[in-house]
Design brief:
This protein is an alpha/beta fold. The protein is built from ten helices and eleven strands.
Amino acid sequence: MVARLIDGKALAEELRTGFKVRVAALSAQGHRPGLAVILAGEDPASQVYVRNKVNACEAAGIFSLKISYPADVSQKTLLAKIAELNADPAIHGILVQLPLPRHIDETTVLETIAPEKDVDGFHAVNIGTLAQGNPRFIPCTPYGVMKMLEANGIDPTGKEAVVIGRSNIAGKPMALLLLNASATVTVCHSKTRDLAAHARRADILVAAIGKPRFVTADMVKPGATVIDIGINRLPEKEGGKLCGDVDFEAVRGIASLITPVPGGVGPMTITMLLANTIEAAERRNWA
């Protein structure tokens, strides 16, 4: 068996084509969707992520506002800018690129964003509605995963789903979404005993632990759907290439469906950010 690839790039392009229609309809009414992205510091990876988000907005017809600060920016300055954006009717979504400099309290910053403009889905109010099964904005990466499952005919109902990782950005909301979709969900993490045994039971296995090639072939149930959220750069002595949390070459001979890295979940993350921004604009202007 050789697993069929779940092509996140192709699905993202398909969805973005539909987004352009919705953006055009809003813009025709004078309500062009607007996204503000705040970047603090000079982290190279964060700069790439922000550039990709801004470019994706432009391609979809969404107005984007990039706001950059040096690494020593004060928390007071960040909070004041967020308050200004909360009150700006031209801005429908606000995103603060993570991680923030160490002297900034991440929770305070994220909780300052108005819930109705929290297109990353990280505000406690939005996480709460997700836990209740009635989400307003879903965190973009797990949202993208659910779209990929749907597009490939994978119904989580009644299936065993295992999520490796418990971050607020990926693991926890991923588990909630699968639970809301009627899967039986197990969350594994660094303290889990015999993690491999849990993983081998999974019909749907999601790796979001941030360790290169952590999931090996002996951890995967034959015929499972394997979703790799991780993105890691190997050391230069190993070629310096990007890889996921799954040992792709080994696992693709065991699984039935698998996401590649790159080209899998990554393109869908930005795509669902666009979706949330458009949704925010539609709710405010067409309510």
